[in-house]
Structures
1.
Amino acid sequence: MESYKEGINSIEVTVDKSHIVTIGERLYGESIELIRELINNAYDADAAEVKVSIKDDSIIVEDNGLGMDFDGLRQYFNIGSTLKRDSPKSLKFCRDRIGEFGIGKFATLSACLCFEVWTKKGDFQARVTFDKQEWQGSKDKWHIPLEIQKSDPGLGDGTKIILKGVNKRFDLSDIEKRIIEAVPIKAPNFSVYLNGKKIIARFIPGHRIPFLEGTEYGIVCGEIIISSPLEQDISNAGIECKVKQVTIAKDFFGLEKLLKNIAQIKGEVNADFLPITSDRTGFIKDTPQYRKFLEVMQRVIERAKPVLTELSERKENRRTRKTLSDVLEKIKNALMLNLDFCPEGLIPIGEGVSDTGQAGFIPESKTTRDIKEKEEGVLKPLQRKKRQKRPQIKKLTPTAVIKRLKVGQQGVSCCIDHFGPDEPECATEGTIIYINRDHPLYQKAAKKKDTYELHIARLVTQEICLMKDCRNLRQAFQRQSKLLRDALAGPITSA
């Protein structure tokens, strides 16, 4: 590399005009990206502090990084330089350098008429002026004016970029949002100020699902954040896919199919090994690294599905628990009025009178029975009890709602859960009543409070009456009709 010599007053741009136009004005179509690029250049130069000043017709980006000497300035204006690829770590803080292609500074051509680069490194201090109008009037080869200044010992090392004649207006909130997304502001020893205000990463409240996985290319880590169901701003939705702490793109990875409100889906994933496009707006997808990345994210989403389902149904489950509790209390009261409808296990012990059949019967203890048999001189041979078939227990999801109806010693448990739209709307195993919330009738009834309560009451009373006597279906349905009437409409009383 040629060092600075006396008499040199320009820096040759080593790419022709057509390439610069393509790079500066087409590749960086959104002029807001130039601010991101200038800040990231300061990060690569080991700046601890970057100050961005936005005015009506000018933008200033000033840093206290290592600065540039003459060779550094030549590298700066040399598109396609391999310096950052050959030295991926910064000198002072050993940062993973973000820049790779050396074309970001030409994004300024889409937003201003002139930009100046002032820099100081040790005893070297200089200013380079890139005037767009002069450049457009020149031939393909062009030398950027270089002004060597006397080094000021009172100034620290660093670089200041001044954009003059800015022809576009910037919204400060948009700039702040882009800096948060596309600049490593969470990195240690690094701060960014916008018009005097320090930019701080947003804290997003919500349920966090962290993940960390290793691959043969590198680590994939981050977190999925499910924010409040009241969130409506979809502009911030999506999982930020970051390379070297910079957001390259956003994706939902199929989560939009699991949550009705996509505005709730946020988070970030870091994968520094992913190859990116030259304009840093996307990934090169036809690569083994990107395919491995997608494979890892699919595993992460599969592990997160149960949690997401539970979170999405948390509000609905509060309503379901209340409705089920209310219904079971009403059915309990109806059973107290119809004790002969109670199946075994739901019979209130010792609460009835002599004409209530089994309801008022107090069973004898084993000791009392033995004494009575001895007094009568009758010793019955021991009978082997018939082994009862253990009921099959269904596997429940984390969102299952379970309540217990207890009238006698055992009671009945009611479980509302997902069993699939093609499965029966209800079933009974032992003393457990399962209600299928995926059934189309359940889905329709759940839309209104009155129909929802009636639907659950119908299914629970149906199963209780079938427990009493499943052989006489006509009688079971008649009993169910009366239980429903007494539970929801109240018993009929004579005037």
2.
Amino acid sequence: MNFKGHQPLSLIDYPKKMCTVLFTGGCNFHCYFCHNPELVVEHKKLPDISGTQILKFLDGRRGFLDGICITGGEPTLWKELPEFMKQVKDMNFLIKLDTNGTNPEFLTSVIENKCVDYVAMDIKTTPAKYPDVVEIDNIDVSKIDESIKILLNSSIEYEFRTTVFPEFFNQIDAQEIGHWIKGAKSYILQKPRTIKMLSKGRFNEKDIPLYTDVELLKLASFLPNCTIR
């Protein structure tokens, strides 16, 4: 298993934990607001960081780090990842996985094998708007729906999250998503990072429409267990 990025220490990527962050290359989405575009379109040009290197790093951080966060890109594209996760769990580290929810089979496997402790799943928008937001015409939203149900019915910690742009997230959308993930323990509205985006050309770079904090709070009021990050 090779990774394309490694942040040795983070205090924000795993709630209430000190973690190291691993970035996988490649993604099956092309979200124009992605703030890791190099992991989507140029990941093959980035140097590899082997799983062996990471395990050696973790061995030297026992008692200091609580765990790891695996993000991307889309980590569940990698068939080798569950075995790496098992090795990390055998070292008694916690594992948080970030995913877009398109691989429910992967989620089921790592949950059943106790290889993950926390999952952060992106809800990009309402089901009908997915093709436009992720720029994939034949997106199978049923896979995302299945992943939602897996997390809702699991015993592990999880959060759903949406990076919020007015273009695809209004009050009606918020209410529809709230119904879609009804019963969720945690839903996060994320403020966009507009300094680096995959397709800034979709907007006038000097005039990217964003919600104000007051507007975000109003949207959050329509959603259960919702916070703003």
3.
Amino acid sequence: MTTSASFPEQLKAFRQQKGWTQRELAKAWAYSFATVSAWERGERIPGVHQIPHLAELMQVTTEEMNSWIQAAHTHYTHSNENGKRYSSGQTFAPTWPQVFDAQDEIWHIYRNRAEFSSGFSYLRMFEDAKHVLGVGISLNAIVQNYSNDKIISALLEQRTTFTLCFLDPHGYYCREREREEQITPGIISGLTGVNIAQMQWVQQHIQNKDAESATRLQLLMYNVCPRFNIYLVDDTLMTVQAYGYGLSENVPIYVLKRKRNNGIFEYYASVTRYILARSSPIKTTLT
């Protein structure tokens, strides 16, 4: 492999050296075939969070891997400027200003989950909401802390809509998050599976009472790298927790209020749109 080549070229050379097809490499690395194929074609670019893992897989340094991905990113940007359409997976909004005027949109910053739990109430946040959007891994704030009774009441009486997007408990990125958290494999996937099943039960329960209300509980699943846990209420109030490479309980949590359409609130709203666009419905058999 030449050191000056970009990531797609390096990846193809590595695969051919191993004597693998794209499908065989995807299986060996626990990525989807579509992802590997798009990487080799230069139609998608790995995110920076994937650099250490990919470097380990290809047995190179993180510095080498970073230079390959930067070369691919430069090519992608040049191609985009010439009118070609790619799905990079890197950019949420390409026209952001260099500096966010965000001070008045940041309502509070909690240093860790313990401070957040003692100083903020999801019960008050969700109370009287017209629409609640949750994008995260297990979405405990709604499923475990808000209670089935409150969700059922909101759906039937307040006519609230809930859009809940869970990380795929059986996907690669769930296993990767367990590794980052340094917890026993199966803990996060098990909890997420239980939470999904609980919301499916709520959906079935509502269906038996009012079929139209059941449609206002939308359950989705995504399988991209989980880097954010976001709750968005009525497009005006939001909590954001960015997952680091260690314990998520030790990272800051932001509470944001929307003040404009091009501030930091809208940036994180675009993160939710990015994930939702790459999610699929969770099928619940309604009778």
4.
Amino acid sequence: MFRTALTFLALLVGTVVFGGLVLLAKLFGVRKAPDSVYEKAPRWWAAWLLRAAGVKVVLHGDDGLAARAPRVYIANHVSWFDIPAMIEALPHYGFVAKRELEQIPLFGAAAREVGVIYIDRENRKAAFGAYEDAARKIREGNPVLVYPEGTRGHEYALRPFKKGPFVLAIGSGAPIVPVVIHGTIAVNPRGEFRASPGTVHVHLLEPIPTAGLTYDDRNTLADQVRERMAACLRTQYGVDSASASPDLAESRSRAVIAPTSA
């Protein structure tokens, strides 16, 4: 209980302090640049929160993270703690997140300034417009992270992937880096208001090129990425994604809208 209270307090204080710092930087005209406050503040926020929760992040694989090459990171999503864990693991990238997050006071505006791209999942035209904006930023050298399952799951077995992230990757021409996150359920399971110390493993898998692909290749690309992530979960953690029920996963996605990235 103490750890949960400490983590919640750290979340509130960290969001006010680091989010406020970002908004002040914008107010005073600080330019966005590599290693500016717009990049550092999210890392400070994530580190602050992870330390409060007693969470250690272990990165497996590299993929030339320091090179700032265009990339689309595709990750599984099982916990709210996936977000700070990924910020800790990757030095600089933006999120594609659902529009509801933008309505959170202070957090929504600060997140937008540090590179979060919001999409309206109920408006197909607006969503693809946001993906076009994200594709442009990727081509300019700004990596982006997307959770293709759309919302958090209750278990590590992969659920059906939405196709938008793969349209984004094809449109950008950037390689997809499949990412497997494991350990965050023990830290903070979906539907439970608690935080526990633990170790989170982030696996960066072999990139999959998208150059030369077209819109018609989106399903094949999604299957290829999902298969690579499923293989990692199976070999590293004994998780069988084939056993997950697509119908159950799909009904959960429609029934619950959680405050997480899209």
